[in-house]
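Here is one chain, start to finish.
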Amino acid sequence: MFLKTHKTAGSTILNLLHRYGDRNRLNFALPFRHQFKYPNLFHSRSVKGFIASTRQQYDILCHHMRFHLPEVQKVMPSDSFYFTIIRDPAKMAESAFSYYRFVSSAFKRARQFKAFVSNPSRYYHQRARSNQFARNLLSFDLGYNPDAPFTEALAKAQVREVEKTFNLVLLTENFDESMILLKEELCWELDDVVTFKLNMRGASVPLEQRDVDQLRAWNALDWYLYSHFNRTFWEKVESFGKVKMDNEVRKLRERRQQLSELCLERLVPVGAEDIKEELLKPYQAGQEKILGWAVRKNLPPYVRTDCVKMVTPELQYMELLDARQFPVRHKMRQP
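Its structure:
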């Protein structure tokens, strides 16, 4: 069970889960559309094909949701492995503003990121449309109240709940080390966790230290959560072995480079206009330019199939999985 948080490289992790489940013919808990009725709390009835009375269970649950453990437990086996990924809330806020600036009421009111950072409470109103993107987004995705007044007791209680529920909490800033820890926990092979970055922006705004401090204060619940799991992450690395981790990360990066040279037309991501295959075009959010990858044409068919899957965006891959699991419905939709 992967809780895909927003603006944390979750789309990249989703791709490796899609590929692993697809390759091993595993059963995904899929939403009716693109997410599980987010921003509402997750409910088992939002899983396509789920019938409570039959208690059928799934192998992988990984698409966007607002986490709600009791309902997740109705869908997933009791011995499921739970993991998620988090990011420094200052960097996360800059990314969220860029991506959701025409969606969140607070961001639309501020218009400019610097204006929002200088006085977020001026633009932010509780319960306004899509304002979960503007404050304590990690806490919101985990199912908590992002507007709860910060106290250390509350923050500690939330951390304890996350620790109790999730077997592993990964860090966006240390993505490669995160992939090695995930591989170790799941007893996977190196190629299972080799990825190319997906859903990337063309550019980001550099943050001054003052901006970082203000954003961490504004997102105090998230900053406490991140600080705690940053510490425990490096404790896990220490337990794994620093020299061993360095060697594993080196192998991961070498393998990624090999696959890049094998699969990709260019070794850098490109704009959607430079990707000719519709299957591989990334979704464009408003005016933000989202980059993707073009796959080389002159590859053996079986090699190209694997390469294409490595760069297939989440929405298109979800459609492919949906067609596999619900073939009759997809056949009926065809003219």
